[in-house]
Here is the input.
Amino acid sequence: MENNRNEESGLFNLAIEGEAKQLLHTAASWARIVAIIGFISAGITLLSTILSGAKAGGFALAGSLLFVTLFLVIGVVLNIFLYRFATNTLASLENMSQVQFNEGANNLKTYFKLMAILIIIAMALFFIVFLAFALGASMMGR
Here is the structure.
């Protein structure tokens, strides 16, 4: 029991220095770049959807805008958490602020949690579509 307490307190006294600090700085810098590219990509996608939908007509624009907006909202929310991780982590490394580091780590946790949920939902939908096609193919074969 006492050994577990020592391990836990050792974990909370973990210091980030040297190579670990540089690796974390590099990872946060790239995360910020990825998030910014994600924001730009979302804007370009929305703009191109509006422009191409205007040529196609009102009903096509409404349908594509609804579909694209759903994916853009998901993407922007994910990129917000990634960007917050990057900015808080970079600031914490400059200021040696434990509070900012914790906020950055929490945003990264949320980012990965949301990604995992989205992947599980996508896999479930693919499985359902696969079953529908398999059942449809078996019905056509009769």
About this structure: The longest helix spans residues 98-140.
